[in-house]
Automatic annotation (TrEMBL):
Any single Pfam family the record assigns to this protein: GtrA_DPMS_TM
InterPro entries per UniProt: GtrA_CellWall_Glycosyl, GtrA_DPMS_TM
Protein name, entry field: GtrA family protein
Keywords (A to Z) from UniProt: Membrane, Transmembrane, Transmembrane helix
GtrA/DPMS transmembrane domain span: 9-139
TM segment ranges: 7-26, 38-55, 75-93, 113-133
Membrane topology term: Multi-pass membrane protein
Provenance organism: Saccharopolyspora halophila
UniProt superkingdom: Bacteria
Length: 160
């Protein structure tokens, strides 16, 4: 049950930071960084990552052992850096490998491709990686929280 609660909280933090990420991405992409959508995406993800760290540390994974604060933050941002690459890679492929941008396509195709690659595919790749990595390295289960051996093993021990 704890795992599902953590996953729901992690998902809620993800939804909040998705809104932050999307808002910043489009604010930058449609204004001051219009010729640089990947740069816009990286900046948006970095801001969302900072908010994500604070919310995940204090809410989603607060019952886990973790590490000292500076080690935890270092690991969090290192893993999130890998996440930035995962978030940004589909947009980079869409733009610079598949050339789904103007003048090769229409403005509508460019916008749909940017949203699909940057906000959906990138988000799913980054989120799956971060969920796994945060639980494994940043907020590991506290040894005191590991439960007893499962009931079938206990029953077998009583039978012998």
């Amino acid at each position: 049950m704890l795992r599902h609660r953590e996953l729901l909280k992690f998902g809620t933090v993800g939804a909040i930071t998705f809104i932050i990420d999307t808002g910043i991405f489009y604010a930058l992409k449609l204004t001051v960084l219009s010729p640089k959508p990947v740069t816009s995406k990286v900046i948006a993800v970095l801001v969302a990552t900072l908010v994500s760290y604070l919310l995940n540390r204090d809410w989603s994974f607060r019952t886990r052992g973790g590490h000292r604060r500076h080690h935890e933050a270092t690991l969090y941002f290192l893993i999130s850096g890998i996440g930035v690459a995962l978030y940004s890679a589909p947009l980079w492929v869409s733009r610079y490998v598949l050339h789904l941008q103007m003048p090769y396509t229409s403005r509508l195709v460019e916008e749909v491709a940017d949203f699909t690659a940057g906000q959906i595919i990138g988000l799913l790749l980054g989120m799956a990686f971060r969920w796994w990595a945060f639980r494994k390295w940043v907020f590991p289960a506290d040894q005191q929280q590991v439960g007893p051996i499962d009931p079938p093993q206990q029953d077998r021990a009583l039978i012998r």
